[in-house]
Amino acid sequence: MSLKAISSKDAASLDKDLMEIGGWSLDQLMELAGLSVSQAVYRIHPPSSGKDVLVICGPGNNGGDGLVAARHLAHYGYKPSIYYPKQGKNELYQRLKTQLENLSIPFISDLPVAIKSADFLVDAIFGFSFGGPLREPFPTIISQIETANIPVLSVDAPSSWDIESGPPKEGPGSKFMPEALISLTAPKPCVKYYKGRHFLGGRFLTKSIADKYKLDLPEYPGIEQIVEVGVDAEGRL
Q: Is 66 known to sit in a ligand binding site?
């Protein structure tokens, strides 16, 4: 299966079209993105494989997707915890945080200890708008994720990767290759450098939007919000 990648500029334009023309709100898009992420976690790492899921969130929409995913994971029977070092100021993020606190989902402060006790990690730090360079505390965080001995699912792009050119040549993230990646709406160009299990999430596009951006989207099976998209031995779509 061959899917067209979408640039960060077009991904931002597509989101704008969804909200300005399609009638969607940011809350709705983030809810569906986070639901997709939670389903990918369940597919890769069911609760029987270990319930302690650490979700590391960045300050933007990618982090918001992680917050939503953590709420769904709690309802699935996992025991999620959140590391959220730079919290989004938007009122939406504050509401998502309140929802998690009302479920007694802990926000942790000691990342190395949390990684050692976790069974699975969700990297929801940076998405398609990331342009680098990394600024603290994120170089340290990325290095800790990179050396973690647990499976990692990255949301939309492995954090620290350039959306066009993939992993950095050196430094934090240069050897970061998560076990799984979920692309939201459509793959981003950096996916051609990725080797691992690859999922697509975002089952809400109309034909007119897909046609405008020349997206060749796969069929989602049944009631699933995700579909697994294989990559070949070179890690290309």
A: no
Q: Exposure pattern of 187-207 as b/e (b: 16+ CB <10 Å)?
A: bbbbbbbbebbbbbbbbbbee
- Determine whether the annotation assigns residue 49 to a binding site: no
- Is it the case that residue 237 has pLDDT exceeding 50? no
* Residue 173 is labelled as binding a ligand: no
Q: Which of 129, 109, 110, 123 is nearest to 60 (CA)?
A: 129
60 in a labelled binding site: no
pTM here is: 0.95
129 marked as part of a ligand binding site: yes
Contact 14, 185 (CB under 8 A): yes
Is 201 annotated for ligand binding? no
Domains recognised in the chain with CATH numbers: 8-229 (3.40.50.10260)
202 carries a ligand binding annotation: no
Amino acid at 30: M
The amino acid sitting at 43 is: R
Q: Is 50 annotated as a binding residue?
A: no
Whether 56 has a pLDDT exceeding 80, the answer reads yes
